[in-house]
Amino acid sequence: MVPQVRARHIQFWLELVERSDEPWRSRFFAALPPEVRAQTDAAAPGTWLPIDLHVTLADVLRETFGDARAHAFYRHAMKASLAGPLFAPLVRTAIRLFGLSPATCVRWAPKAWEASFRNAGTMTGEILEPGRARLVYRDLARVCIESDAWIESSQGSAYGVIEMTRADGIVRLDLSERANNGYSLEIEWAPKR
Question: Cα–Cα distance between 167 and 11 in angstroms, integer?
Fold first, then answer.
């Protein structure tokens, strides 16, 4: 089975890069292989594309934006994504049932993963104690686990969730299971004062 990502996920990412500041926007699109853009543009939003395209976007973004700007991009992208057409209905339901908090997002993150990825591994959310949780990624596609940029994008995204929920927090990346095609994010937070 081919690891895949929802086309809309990649298309939304490219839309956000289109709105990025210069010179980073131009650098990104100059470095992006033309076939990645062509395949993404030709896809209907609800279809599935090879996950390699998603990894390529992460690698190119990190290369052209640099670490700090890429991290900021993922924070912003996650907040925009949760308010967008793919995830907003899921977010509204979660908030209605559990309220707006990082814990709610951790509980519902696996559903967002399943809406975005297919045959690419699993993600589970674990609440460890009040103000502390873990997202665990397992059985990831080899192309994903081999990309530092792809893994680090999830850390930036987790910071975006913390900001969206109006909390202060930290996200630690644990790569101890990387050799087994997995990793985890340790998340700690407290309400903003």
Answer: 29
Q: Which residue has the tokens 């930036």?
A: 156
Dihedral sign, Cα of residue 66, residue 67, residue 68, residue 71: positive
pTM of the model: 0.90
Cα–Cα distances in Å, from 151 out to 47, 87, 147, 178, 181?
A: 23, 21, 6, 10, 11
What is the chain's pLDDT, residue by residue, as a tens digit (193 residues)? 999 999 999 999 999 999 999 999 999 999 999 999 999 999 999 999 999 999 999 999 999 999 999 999 999 998 787 666 666 666 677 667 667 789 988 988 998 899 899 999 999 999 999 999 999 999 999 999 999 999 999 999 999 989 988 899 999 999 999 999 999 999 999 988 7
Beta strands at 167-174 and 117-118: parallel, antiparallel or unpaired: unpaired
| Residues with Cβ within 8 Å of residue 38, at least 6 apart in sequence | none
Omega within 30 of 0 (cis) for the link into 23: yes
* β-bridge mates for residue 190, sequence order: 168
